[in-house]
């Protein structure tokens, strides 16, 4: 089985960070979003990955090659973002007739991966949501088989949202239906959507079974990213690299602090992730994500997302600061 991970999106809702960093490489709870996905699939026995890259795709490729040299990886470029259906269609010549699992590059879910991979059925991950109008929606019968899927319906007939994890056995039908979308110019909200191809497969008699994910972490916006960071830290516990220098500082778990960090007269935590080689002096930081090679001096930071190579001095604010930034409120 091969894994397809689309990571070509621009991540507009996470700007300014995604001006310089792909959304999939934004750190949470000591790892990147992409690493949570790849590690989960690799632990289940998948060794061949196809990454669909676009915006800042060279950073994705460099990161994957450096972090996972032991994996068999392909990189497919989606030069024009025309939707998830268009992205998946670009992998046709690599997949051939292999079974695949598709996981969207901003989707972190907890589920029984081996059970899904080994299922004799095509499988779609679902989760009950309060307002399904923002998602693909699955209509499911009493035997957990899926009768219809619809992308962002104005009047949903179900509150079971598609979470962005798809196990496809009948890949020849998948690519036939994707071709059908292009031939008939079938778009939803101006894009060729994977959900429409799945509905085409269902109408042609392909069976899909649903599986419920235990947890679905939202990494799409600053507020939900910080919530996800806190939840994952609570679940996984603190990680403080042995090279961290701590002088008169208090650490309130759970936190993750990367290699080479320097803490001096600081209070860190709870729910804080700090990238490597960052310096925090005379500061208080809680419920925040701080990038690598960043300097914080005489600040009180709460509920903030600060990129790498940033410098912040002398304030008490909630911040959303991108990479390579210097701010001095002194």
Strand content: 25-35%
Distance between the termini: 56 Å
Q: Output mean pLDDT.
A: 88
Uncertain runs with pLDDT below 50, 5 residues or more? none
- Sheet having the most strands: 9 strands, parallel
Annotated CATH topology of the largest domain: Spore Coat Polysaccharide Biosynthesis Protein SpsA, Chain A
What name goes with the CATH superfamily of the largest domain? Spore Coat Polysaccharide Biosynthesis Protein SpsA, Chain A
Indicate the radius of gyration in whole angstroms. 21 Å
| Overall shape | elongated
Helix content: 10-25%
The number of helical elements comes to 8
Number of strands: 28
Structural domains: how many: 2
Assembly category: single chain
Query: What is the CATH top level name of the largest domain?
Result: Alpha Beta
Question: What is the CATH architecture assignment of the largest domain?
Answer: Alpha-Beta Complex
Give the structural class.
Answer: alpha/beta
Main features:
alpha/beta, Spore Coat Polysaccharide Biosynthesis Protein SpsA, Chain A, UDP N-Acetylglucosamine Acyltransferase, domain 1, 2 domains, nine-stranded parallel β-sheet, 8 helices, 23% helix, transferase, Glucose-1-phosphate thymidylyltransferase
Task: Detail the topology: elements first, then pairings.
Elements: E1 2-7, E2 27-28, E3 31-32, H1 33-43, E4 48-53, H2 57-67, E5 72-77, H3 84-89, H4 92-95, E6 100-103, E7 107-110, H5 113-117, E8 122-128, E9 136-140, E10 146-151, E11 160-168, H6 171-184, H7 194-203, E12 208-212, E13 215-218, H8 222-236, E14 239-240, E15 245-247, E16 250-251, E17 255-257, E18 262-264, E19 267-268, E20 272-274, E21 279-281, E22 284-286, E23 288-290, E24 295-302, E25 305-306, E26 311-317, E27 320-321, E28 326-328
Parallel strand pairs: 1-4, 1-6, 4-5, 8-12, 14-17, 15-18, 16-19, 17-20, 18-21, 19-22, 20-23, 21-24, 22-24, 23-25, 24-26, 25-27, 26-28
Antiparallel strand pairs: 2-3, 6-11, 7-13, 8-11, 9-10
Helix pairs in contact: 6-7
């Amino acid at each position: 089985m091969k894994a397809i991970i689309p990571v070509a999106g621009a991540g507009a809702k996470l700007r300014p960070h995604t001006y310089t960093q792909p959304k999939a490489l934004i750190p949470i709870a000591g790892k990147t979003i992409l690493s949570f996905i790849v590690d989960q699939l690799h632990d289940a026995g998948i060794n061949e990955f196809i990454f669909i890259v676009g915006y800042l795709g060279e950073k994705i490729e460099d990161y994957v090659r450096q972090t996972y040299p032991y994996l068999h990886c392909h990189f497919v470029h989606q030069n024009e973002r025309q939707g998830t259906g268009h992205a998946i269609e670009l992998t046709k010549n690599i997949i051939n007739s292999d079974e695949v699992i598709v996981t969207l590059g901003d989707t972190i879910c907890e589920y029984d991966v081996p059970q899904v991979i080994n299922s004799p059925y095509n499988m779609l991950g679902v989760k009950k949501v309060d307002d399904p109008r923002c998602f693909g929606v699955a209509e499911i019968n009493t035997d957990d088989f899926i009768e219809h899927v619809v992308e962002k319906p104005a009047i949903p007939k179900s509150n079971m949202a598609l979470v962005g994890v798809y196990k496809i056995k009948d890949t020849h039908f998948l690519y036939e239906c994707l071709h059908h979308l292009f031939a008939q110019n079938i778009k939803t909200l101006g894009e060729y959507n994977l959900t429409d191809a799945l509905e085409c497969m269902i109408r042609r008699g392909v069976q899909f079974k649903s599986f419920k994910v235990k947890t679905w972490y939202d990494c799409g916006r600053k507020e939900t990213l910080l919530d996800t960071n806190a939840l994952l830290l609570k679940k996984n516990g603190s990680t403080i690299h042995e090279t961290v220098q701590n002088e008169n500082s208090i650490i309130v778990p759970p936190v993750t602090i990367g290699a080479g960090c320097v803490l001096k007269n600081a209070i860190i935590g709870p729910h804080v992730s700090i990238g490597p080689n960052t310096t925090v002096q005379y500061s208080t930081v809680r419920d925040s994500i701080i990038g690598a090679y960043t300097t914080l001096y005489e600040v009180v930071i709460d509920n903030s997302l600060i990129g790498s190579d940033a410098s912040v001095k002398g304030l008490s604010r909630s911040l959303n600061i991108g990479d390579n930034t210097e701010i001095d409120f002194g």
